[in-house]
Amino acid sequence: MTDGVPATQLRWMAEGHAYFLSCLKDVDDAELEGPTSLPGWTGKHLLSHVGHNARALTRLARWAHTGIETPMYASSSARTEEIDDGAGWSTARLRDFVVEEQERLSTELDRIDGEGWQAPVVTAQGRTVPAATIPWLRCREVWIHACDLPGGGDFAAFPAGFTDALIEDALTRRRGAQSVDISVRATDRESGGAVTGTVIEGPAADLARWLTRGTVVPTLRAASGGTLPKLPDWL
C-alpha cells in the first residue's frame, strides 16, 4: 500500500469484477434458474449474494470516510434475507444489480482518503479491521464466486499474486478460527518458509481451490501420503 491506499487490492477487485462478468456472460438465464455447486443456491441466489455483498461493503466504506457507524447488515438474519429476496428477482434485474452495486462500491471507496483507510470497521463475522481490508474482502467474493457460476471460471485464471494471498488468507483462518493444523507447498512456486502439521502439495491454483472450496483433484497430495484432510466450510 502507498500512503495507506490498498492499490494492489483495488486493482485485483476491479479485475475480479471484470472476470466475474466475463464468466457470467457465458451463462444463460435458464442456467441461472438452476442449481450451483453451493448447497441450496441457484445461480440467482449467487448473483443476489454478489450484488448484496457489494452493497454491504459499500456501507463499510461509507463508515470509513464519514465516521458514522454503518454495519454491513442490520441484523444477524439480514444477510440471508437479502439473498433470498434477491433470488426472486428476474435474471435481467440481477445481472444489472451486480454491475450497479459494484459501481457504487467503487465510488464509495474512492471517497476514502489516506488516513481513512486505517479507520476501523467491523466485518459480518464481527472482526474489527482497518478499512483498507474492504477491497480484499470484495476480491475474494468476485474471483471465487466466478468459479461457482454454472460452468464458470477457473482458479488457474487468477492473478498469481492474488492466488498466493488467497492461500495465505485461507490458511490463517483455518489455523486460527478452525484450529486446522495444515500447511501447503505450491509445486509451481519457489519454496517458501517452514511448514508444520499436515503438508499438502500441488499447483497454487488447485491449493487455493481446495482451501476455499474443499475441491480435491489428482494434482494434490499429502506429503506424508494418505488422503487429504476434510476441511470445514471456509467462511
General description of the model:
With 235 residues, the chain is mainly α. Helices cover 50% and strands 8% of the residues. The protein is globular and about 50 Å long. The model has no long low-confidence stretch (mean pLDDT 94).
Task: List strands and helices in order, with pairings.
Blueprint: H1 7-25, H2 29-33, H3 43-66, H4 78-86, H5 91-110, E1 120-122, E2 128-130, H6 134-146, H7 160-176, E3 182-186, E4 198-202, H8 204-213, E5 221-222
Parallel strand pairs: 3-4
Antiparallel strand pairs: 1-2, 4-5
Helix pairs in contact: 1-6, 3-4, 3-5, 3-6, 7-8
Radius of gyration: 18 Å
Describe the main β-sheet briefly: 3 strands, mixed
Low-confidence stretches: none
N/C terminus separation? 26 Å
What is the element string, with H for helices and E for strands? HHHHHEEHHEEHE
Individual helix count? 8
Strand content: 5-15%
Structural class: mainly alpha
Short characterization:
By secondary structure, the chain is mostly helical. The protein contains eight helices and five strands, in the order αααααββααββαβ. It has helices spanning 7-25, 29-33, 43-66, 78-86, 91-110, 134-146, 160-176, 204-213; strands at residues 120-122, 128-130, 182-186, 198-202, 221-222.
Which labels suit this protein?
50% helix; 235 residues; mainly alpha
